[in-house]
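Anyone have tokens for Penicillin-binding protein? Sequence:
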Amino acid sequence: MNEWEASFEAFVQRLMDDFQVPGAIIAVAKDGELTYEKAFGYRDREKQTPIDLDTVFGIGSITKSFTCMAILKLQEEGKLSVHDPVITYLPEFRTPDEAQTKRITIHHFMTHTLGFPPLPSLIPAMLPSLQADPTAQELLQHFEAQCKHPIDTFEDLMAYIEKLTFELLGPAGTEFSYSNEAFGLLGAIIERVSGKTYEAYVQEHFLQPIGMGRTVFHVEELGEDDNTTMLYTRRMNDGVREVVRAPGWWDAPSMRAAGFLKSSARDMLRYADVYRTGGLSNGTRIISGDSVSQMTAPHVRIDLSRSYGYGLGVFSFTEDYTLLTHTGGLKGITAQMFIVPEAGVTGILLTNMDDAPITNLTLGLLNSMFGRPLETQFATFSEWEVPLDYLQQCPGTYQSGEGDVVEIRFDEAQRQLLLVLGNDVFPLRSVGEDTFLFTRHNIDSLIRFVRRPDGEIKRMAFGSRQIPKAT
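Reply: yep, here.
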């Protein structure tokens, strides 16, 4: 037993209790060998059924790394280049700017730098599964205007984007903003270039050769096997937050490449090992070392401490270590995969509730393993002086096409900006040009105000998305 395990597991249990997470599993390998595994809670809270390394959970947007791996596999086969224009393969793809449409490449899709702000496409893309889910009614009401018709095919998705009115964030390659649409359409490129469905391509080239027998797009593929998790979601009931049972996996046929795989901890450690080894799985080459290098290179800066490769976040963890990682979240799903290549370490954290405190869990695990105090942050930042007139330009309501609403206020007495999320208010501390830090659930996060050439603030980079200023 590692000396850090007892204190770490007490830390996890406190978080699980505080956030009412029904179940989770955490597993770590060193040089491909399992060194730590621990299940917490239950895969089905009501039946009190246990979780093990083979229990199937959703992995959400960790699917995006499989999608990028597929694109690079096709590049290895000489069937495409990541620097090809997207319209070479998707001639019906349109944006509000025809010249920009022609300049957007597959690389821009893979790095979320095509210039799209957050758009509402994912909701109509999931429409049939949302309509079948009693816990999704509030979400459907909120997006009623966008949900006249389901987006069932790649062609539907491109037609839907063409009809939307939105302002591009900037020339292709200049602005990072997380785009599920881009990754949904990478699935279309994989399908058209390979002649196979996206799901079949991933199955044939990655899931089968890596030995990921419990990784599927639909749990029905597992047959009679019932070692899959129940799904749970949080909702307010008379002002009290409760976690409710929410069976039924959400699905989006046109956007499966953006986030709809399900997997087990054992399978995900096998998958993460491909990045540790430079493209190998048990001695079998899955992708080339050069492709792994391309996936894990920091192609674009997200903020002062984070960059993005192809379907993977690339963070500086310490002076000696790089953290390759991606999270995933959807109803009944919060997950995180990580690789610390220099240490030969891979890890996976899977939970059966949306909005579980996955960053706290992952950071606590990494801190414990690398001998740092449990609540050490990913990065530290110096104070930055900001003129008063600048602070007074920032207040307003920022609203995204995905439904996120963030309010910025100015506290005259404290001469400080405040970030308002629902009923929660967080003071902002300046740590760089246009960049501010706030602390939520003991995790430091950065926001950045984006200005027009004349200096007027037009959007805010929040999390991994750029949110336009509405008022």
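The first strand starts at residue 23 and ends at 30.
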